[in-house]
Amino acid sequence: MKTENIFIISATLSLLAIVGAITYHNSNELKSIERNVESAIVKGIDPIAVRCAYESNSTNVCVAYASSPKR
To answer: Which of 2, 4, 19, 52 is most buried, by the most CB atoms less than 10 A from its CB?
Structure first.
């Protein structure tokens, strides 16, 4: 009984640590992208170009951006 409780507590703590680490990593990544987009806006760079440099999931938006005529 005591061993089962230790295993359950250890598994729960491990799961919480993993969830916390993933949340921390994602929030830091979003803050970094936000700072870089704001910096790009100040410098006159298109924010979509900055977003495409960071995003790996939004290929449709980036392909459409890359193929569109530049102003």
So the answer is: 52
- Top pLDDT among 20 and 33 is at 20
Give per-residue pLDDT as tens, 38-69. Answer: 888 888 887 777 777 776 665 666 776 666 67
Q: The domain containing residue 17 runs over which residues?
A: 2-67
The DSSP secondary structure of the chain, one letter per residue, reads -HHHHHHHHHHHHHHHHHHHHHHHHHHHHHHHHHHHHHHHHHHT--HHHHHHHH-SS-HHHHHHHHHSPP-
CA distances from 9 to 14, 62, 64 (A): 9, 45, 49
